[in-house]
Write a structure and sequence with these properties.
Layout: H1 3-17, H2 20-97, H3 100-115, H4 125-131
Helix pairs in contact: 2-3
């Protein structure tokens, strides 16, 4: 026996027991549930769009911070490279001149340069990041 045919038979038998008022109520329930489903679906689409927009903002913040940090490092390391090159030239000169005090002073400068961090000027990096690209502190490149 075909199960679908059995279901139709049961539904046909029940249809005779359901009056017009019950059918109208069932239709009203279907319309109401469909309306609620549509509203829920729209709400969820709106939430997903808001999440995607927030994600885009955060990605843009990260990209801007990355670009800023790269520019900073390029500048700082270029300065450090120039400083270190100059110090090694001075070291060579001091060694050629046989000046042990100058050799010591230049080596001390090289060590200090090597120990300093390009980010040492940022007292609180977490605070910097939290405020970076906010309405009160817009990103300016």
């Amino acid at each position: 026996m075909n199960p679908a045919a059995g279901n139709n038979k049961v539904a046909h038998n029940l249809a005779g027991a359901i009056g017009p008022l019950e059918a109208l109520n069932a239709l009203g329930e279907i319309v109401q549930v469909a309306r609620e489903y549509g509203q829920l679906a729209q709400t969820e689409r709106t939430r997903r769009a808001a999440i995607a927009a927030a994600e885009s903002v955060q990605v843009a913040r990260i990209e801007a911070a990355e670009a800023t940090l790269k520019m900073y490092f390029d500048r700082v390391f270029a300065e450090r490279r120039q400083s270190s090159d100059a110090m090694f030239v001075r070291l060579d000169q001091a060694m050629e001149a046989g000046d042990p005090q100058m050799v010591h002073a230049v080596v001390r400068g090289i060590v200090e340069l090597a120990q300093s961090s390009p980010l040492a000027g940022l007292d609180d990096f977490g605070k910097f990041w939290a405020e970076y690209g906010t309405p009160d502190n817009p990103i300016e490149l």
